[in-house]
Design brief:
The protein has 403 residues and is of the alpha/beta class. It folds into 2 domains: 7-130, Rossmann fold, CATH 3.40.50.2300; 224-402, Orthogonal Bundle (Hypothetical protein af1432). It is 59% helix and 6% strand. The protein is built from 21 helices and 5 strands. It has helices at 16-25, 41-50, 67-77, 92-98, 112-129, 132-140, 149-158, 165-173, 176-186, 200-207, 209-222, 235-255, 260-272, 275-283, 285-297, 302-310, 314-324, 329-336, 351-365, 376-381, 388-402; strands at residues 7-12, 33-38, 55-58, 82-87, 104-107. The protein has a 5-stranded parallel β-sheet with strand order 2-1-3-4-5, sandwiched between helices. Strand 4 (82-87), helix 4 and strand 5 (104-107) form a beta-alpha-beta unit. Helix 7 (149-158) packs antiparallel against helix 11 (209-222), helix 14 crosses helix 17 (314-324) and helix 15 (285-297) crosses helix 16 (302-310). The longest helix has 21 residues, at 235-255.
Length: 403
């Protein structure tokens, strides 16, 4: 999809026959990757100490130093390196739990195109979040929102299989301000509820735990900004746009064949896609007001002007914060690349696709000034260009229902 620099990939497996098989299987990528194959964790660390590396792909079960031990050291000593497990263990959940320091999991045998796509996506996100200009700007920012405590409490509770719907409702209801904010969103036209929802317990029962968890995240984050801090920026319009994009992205994801999990990711990313704008306006108000004015007077995309002034964009800043919070990579990518899906390294229809389209068509439907346009070449590449009229109609329905 996008042109990429040549990546340095290190493969680690104690079985020489496996490494030879990987060499044969991946031969067609030799012009794209510089590949090195070693038979132990210590050999991998020796290599990393002498050579630049973008990705380490390791087996789990190895003598002397297993995959978890190796990746833990890589994470500590070489945090910029993408860490991937390639394992033949059948219980994927057990592997993921055991390998905390990994970015991605691939099962043996692995299709070479799946491996290429996984590496491309992981490196694209890594490059975004480790950009020098982004890191330089972040050091200037004094105030960033924190992950809402209620969201953290929900996340911890939901990791316990004994947690009930009633328990989730109790957690939400303990915070009166949060409950009020969530109920306001639940009772908005976006959810089409036929009766007023008046409690956290009722919200969970009607919408489900995952949806309410997402609303808690959004409400908790947005409540940390005030209208007085935004100057030329309307916080109310911002939240309305975010809610519409979330609803549109979810509808697009489902219409395009996505499952409930990817649709939920698209919805969450839609809610959070412009978080970086709030951070910039709160911390760099004068400069960001100038960015907005130049975007409008010069009829240029906001992200393009941001890149010129700050060296980075609101999308990258939002993704960076979500990364600090430890949210899923698919969600971070959908926020970080929603203006430039082509450069993300992702392939095929995914939450990023849905958020990219939802943001652009909402601006168009609402006739709000914005130079954001749907990248039709990208849609053509993923085989979804024919769906754009249908998705625009979906956006119009959602927008009309909310007004």
């Amino acid at each position: 999809m996008s042109s990429e620099k040549r990546r340095n990939i290190l493969f680690v497996d104690d079985e020489g026959s496996v490494l030879k098989g990987l060499q044969r299987m991946l031969r067609r990528f030799r012009n794209d990757w510089e590949m090195t194959f070693v038979e132990s964790g210590q050999a991998a660390l020796d290599y990393l100490g002498e050579s630049p590396c973008d990705v380490v792909i390791t087996d789990m079960r190895m003598p002397q130093m297993n995959g978890r031990e190796l990746l833990s050291i890589v994470r500590e000593q070489y945090p910029h390196v993408v860490r991937i497990v390639l394992s033949g263990q059948a219980n994927i959940e057990t592997v993921i739990e055991a390998v905390e320091p990994t970015h991605q999991y691939l099962s043996k045998p692995c299709d070479p195109d799946v491996m290429r796509a996984t590496i491309s996506r992981a490196c694209g996100l890594r490059d975004l979040l480790h950009d020098d200009a982004l890191r330089s700007l972040v050091t200037r920012i004094d105030s960033v929102p924190s992950l809402p405590s209620v969201y953290q409490e929900l996340h911890e509770a939901l990791s316990d299989p004994e947690t009930t719907v009633s328990t989730v409702g109790d957690i939400i209801s303990h915070d009166g301000a949060m409950t009020a904010k969530v109920l306001k969103m639940v009772n908005s036209a976006y959810f089409g509820t036929t009766q007023d929802v008046t409690s956290g317990h009722q919200a969970v029962a009607m919408l489900g735990v995952d949806m309410v968890k997402t609303l808690v995240l959004s409400a908790g984050v947005f409540s940390q900004f005030t209208a007085a801090e935004m100057q030329r920026f309307s916080l109310a319009e911002f939240e309305e746009h975010s809610q519409r994009v979330g609803a549109i992205a979810e509808a697009i994801m489902l219409d395009g064949g996505g499952d409930k999990e990817t649709a939920a990711c698209a919805y969450t990313a839609g809610l959070m896609h412009d978080l970086g704008k709030l951070i910039l306006m709160k911390n760099c108000a004068t400069e960001y007001s100038d960015v907005i004015e130049r975007s409008q007077t010069e009829n240029r995309p906001l992200g393009e002007v941001e890149q010129q002034i700050f060296g980075t964009s609101h999308a990258a800043i939002g993704a960076y914060l979500l990364g600090i919070w430890g949210l899923p990579d698919d969600l971070i990518a959908a926020v970080g690349f929603h203006h430039q899906p082509f450069v993300s390294g992702t392939e095929g229809f995914c939450p990023l696709s849905a958020v990219h389209v939802a943001n652009a068509v909402d601006h168009s439907v609402e006739a709000v000034f914005a130079c954001d346009r749907v990248d039709e070449d990208y849609l053509q590449q993923i085989g979804m260009a024919h769906k754009l009229p249908e998705w625009t109609a979906l956006a119009e329905q959602i927008s009309q229902g909310a007004n």
